[in-house]
Design a protein that fits this description.
Strand order of the largest sheet: 1-4-5-8
Number of strands: 8
CATH topology of the largest domain: Butyryl-CoA Dehydrogenase, subunit A, domain 3
Pfam family, one: Acyl-CoA_dh_N
Cofactor: FAD
Order of helices and strands: HHHHHHHEEEEEEEEHHHHHH
CATH superfamily of the largest domain: Butyryl-CoA Dehydrogenase, subunit A, domain 3
Helix content: 40-55%
Strand content: 5-15%
Largest sheet: 4 strands, mixed
Number of domains: 3
Keywords: FAD, Flavoprotein, Oxidoreductase
Family: Belongs to the acyl-CoA dehydrogenase family.
CATH architecture of the largest domain: Up-down Bundle
InterPro entries: Acyl-CoA_dehydrogenase, Acyl-CoA_Oxase/DH_mid-dom, Acyl-CoA_Oxase/DH_mid-dom_sf, AcylCo_DH-like_C, AcylCo_DH/oxidase_C, AcylCoA_DH/ox_N, AcylCoA_DH/ox_N_sf, AcylCoA_DH/oxidase_NM_dom_sf
Length: 428
């Protein structure tokens, strides 16, 4: 896709790739085995180095110190940045969703208290949406609630699968409306410091064996000032939808980058590993792994770039495009990493390569931000609800006058075929 991106984006993408290859790749083994505290320390050191190279926060709008790229432009960089699991954290994109929501919806006090230190990496955010015991894909079932008492909000409830270890504050999605209020206006978002009295980490939640910082938390009579409300009271549902749409796109772009890395590792293995008779890559079944992975990555990439363009244009079809691309990208990610592990054999199951971590991450993506089944159903419903297109009208130039010696169909042959270059689909 190099032919369709600007020199500015190509240069930034190449700089990001060079920085990550030079500085992040050597410490990847240490990051894989480090505990949460050591991992945060290593990432913080790399953040400082990224800032020295002018790469910290490049995804942000200009007014927040970034490059101000459209999402369709940033998509090319996000894929490269996401090729390393810690890439977004090192380059400042891991907090992009929280920055965006604060920039769009926070009042002056919240912007000074949270947005400014978030921009410099002084504080770390996390998000509290999913709750134990209810369907995580149905926001309207969330039970955590907040009630107003004077100049404070008092919050009670539970959240889980929150990256709370090392976080300084959590944006909590909670019910604030009275009994009988419309579900669409019954929810709000409130910023809660993680050191507030009553904010308790109940337990860590390893994901497929990985202790990556997820946890279950309990909020028991947590009190925060009234000015910690993000956006208007009752505006939480709309902001959650806004956050989800952008978040799904940005995360899925990183999955393409991670799948591309697994693909590159697989191809390198096929080119170098020799059996007793020939190269592993000479075997037809191995070549099928290459073909399937190449086509799946290319398809997911194009769908995501299309969705990014729709998001830039504020197109009403963006939700459908993002959901469809999210499903395709997550399935592709799992398929490609599985094939790469198969090519590596027993070594692929170990932590001697990044593949085990990539495969674990790939499996979680089919549940993150809504499971596949929810997106498939939502997309199908939207597509079936569209008006049925009118049948094509016959073209007058495709027939000739009837006569005793003439055919009733249009002639064919040189000069009469209507599928010339101007009619063909673009080929990338």
């Amino acid at each position: 896709m190099d032919a369709i991106i600007s020199d500015e984006i190509r240069t930034l993408r190449d700089e990001v790739r060079g920085f990550l290859d030079e500085h992040l790749r050597p410490v990847e083994p240490a990051l894989r085995t480090a505990g949460p505290d050591e991992r945060r320390k290593l990432v913080a050191e790399l953040r400082e180095l990224a800032a020295e190279h002018g790469l910290w926060g490049a995804a942000r709008p200009v007014e927040l110190g970034g490059r101000g790229l459209p999402w369709a432009g940033w998509a090319h960089v996000a894929e490269v940045e996401g090729s390393y699991l810690e890439g977004p954290a090192v380059l400042g994109s891991a907090s992009l969703l929280d920055l965006t929501m604060l920039h769009r919806h926070a009042g002056p006090w919240l912007r000074e208290r949270y947005l400014q230190p978030l921009l410099t990496g002084e504080i770390t955010p996390c998000y509290g949406m999913t709750e134990p015991g209810v369907s995580g894909s149905d926001l309207l079932q969330m039970r955590t609630h907040a009630r107003r008492q004077g100049d404070e909000w008092v919050i009670n409830g539970r959240k889980w699968f929150c990256k709370v270890r090392g976080a300084d504050f959590m944006t909590v999605f909670c019910r604030t409306g009275p009994a009988g209020a419309s579900n669409r206006t019954a929810f709000s978002m409130i910023l809660v410091p993680t050191d507030a009295p009553g904010f308790e980490i109940v337990r860590d939640l390893p994901l497929l064996g990985d202790t990556g910082g997820h946890a279950e938390i309990r909020l028991h009579d947590v009190r925060v000032p009234a000015n910690h409300l993000l956006g208007p009271e009752g505006g939480g549902f709309g902001m959650a939808m806004e956050r989800l749409s952008l978040g799904r796109l940005l995360r899925a772009l990183t999955w393409v980058g991670q799948a591309q890395r697994a693909y590159d590792l697989m191809c390198a293995r096929l080119r170098s590993r020799r059996t007793s008779t020939d190269l592993l890559g000479d075997k037809q079944l191995m070549q099928l792994h290459v073909f399937d992975s190449y086509t799946e990555i290319a398809s997911a990439r194009l769908m995501l770039h299309h969705a990014a363009a729709l998001l830039d244009a504020d197109d009403p079809q963006v939700a459908t495009a993002v959901s469809a691309a999210k499903v395709v990208a997550s399935r592709m990610f799992q398929h490609v990493t599985d094939r790469a592990i198969q090519v590596y054999g027993a070594e692929g199951l170990s932590d001697d390569t990044p593949l085990s971590g990539l495969f674990r991450e790939a499996r979680t993506t089919r549940i993150y931000d809504g499971p596949d089944e929810v997106h498939i159903q939502a997309v199908a419903r939207r597509l079936l609800a569209r008006p049925e297109p009118a049948p094509p009208r016959p073209r007058a130039d495709r027939t000739v006058p009837a006569g005793p010696d003439t055919d009733r169909t249009a002639p064919s042959g040189p000069g009469t075929d209507r599928t010339g270059p101007e009619q063909s689909a673009p080929v990338s």
